Amino acid sequence: MSILDVEVIRSYIRMCDDGWQQGWHERNGGNLTYRMRPEEVEQCRPFFATPGQWVNMGVRADNLTGEYFISTGSGNFFRNVILAPQDNICIVEINDRGDSWRIVWGLEQGGRPTSEFPSHFLNHSVRKTATDGKNRVIYHAHPANIIAMTYILPLTSRDFTRALWQSATECPIVFPGGVGVVPWMVPGGADIALATSELMREFDAAVWAHHGLFCSGPDFDITFGLMHTIEKGAQIFILAMAAGQGKLRQTITDDNLRAIARDFGVTLNENFLD
Ligand code: 13P
Ligand code: ZN
Asked: Whole-structure pTM over 0.85, yes or no?
């Protein structure tokens, strides 16, 4: 028995590899964090090493004190996670002030959790509150088509949500709340973490202009599926705009969107309908 036999660790590794295979993780691009259930912590605890030093995050969350997260390492490649998980991912514990982490397992060749840990951490905090504790996954990736959209559409939640909803009939069913958009900002710090988490109060996904996408969800399947659906919608948008030389002959209308919502029992964000 090794920690790599624990179900949650296996599922986490599978998601990293799925993202790599989609082409969303060039070099060290992207990062994945998972807030562990108490029973999952206990399954992994026999394999914990002597804890590392506490490291202050520059952000704080009262509702995440004492939690444990699985995280990809900063500078580590998603491509390598499946080959050597113990060197590319880690488990961190959060202190009782909710402002620092320490490594309790993994990154055995050295390293630290993703440079985007402050953004992940504040997103976990607001999504945990928004979902009554159900949210567990925050996922950041660099899918090409959603990034391409940030060069041709106004950087508003309304413009992005409408374009994506109209790109494929499944989109309004999968993300009826729409997507947030963060303007271009320097990544890796507290400022972009705060801006993203403000949007994550309302949305379960946020676009980072000219950079990538953040998605959240209760488990790996739902979160990966959200990333996949948004990026597929973006791909169709880019293909249609390119093929039509910037003109669309027809699209899914607002009446069509309302009909989908009615028949599938989802509530669309009314701010984004005409
Ligand atoms: P890390 O390697 O620190 O996770 O950074 C990758 C990235 O996507 C930064 O936004
Ligand atoms: Zn990134």
From this structure: yes
Q: Which of 28, 70, 77, 120 to mutate to test the pocket of ligand 1 (most atoms within 8 A of CB)?
A: 28
**Residue 133, token pair as written in the block:** 């504790």
Mind listing the pLDDT tens digit for each residue in 88-117? 999 999 999 999 999 999 999 999 999 999
27 touches ligand 1 (CB under 6 Å): no
Using CA atoms, how far apart are residues 31 and 78, in angstroms rounded to an integer? Answer: 8
* Mutation pick for ligand 1 pocket among 116, 140, 182, 208 (CB with most ligand atoms within 8 Å): 116
- Domains contained in the chain, CATH given: 1-115 (3.40.225.10), 140-274 (3.40.225.10)
Is the CB of residue 67 below 6 angstroms from any atom belonging to ligand 1? Answer: no
By CB atoms closer than 10 A (0-12, 13-18, 19+), residue 222 is middle
Please tell me the predicted confidence (pLDDT) of residue 162: 98
